[in-house]
Amino acid sequence: MLQASLGRQPIDFGDPRRLVDGPGLAGVSGRYFEGEKEARAAEEAYRPEYRARLCELTDRLLA
């Protein structure tokens, strides 16, 4: 079990192995999780201009 503390209250991230080899997530890809719960990515991740910029930077770094 993973735990982090923000301020005084611990956050329980559950068992991260569930996200890797859990039978309920077989074949699942491209989703985001906060602890045990599925969540949305930051709003920027859905903006085409940010995605294009990420592709440009990735191409430059890998060239």
TrEMBL record:
Top-level division of the source organism's lineage: Bacteria
Protein name: Uncharacterized protein
Annotated source species: Herbidospora solisilvae
Source organism phylogeny: Bacteria, Bacillati, Actinomycetota, Actinomycetes, Streptosporangiales
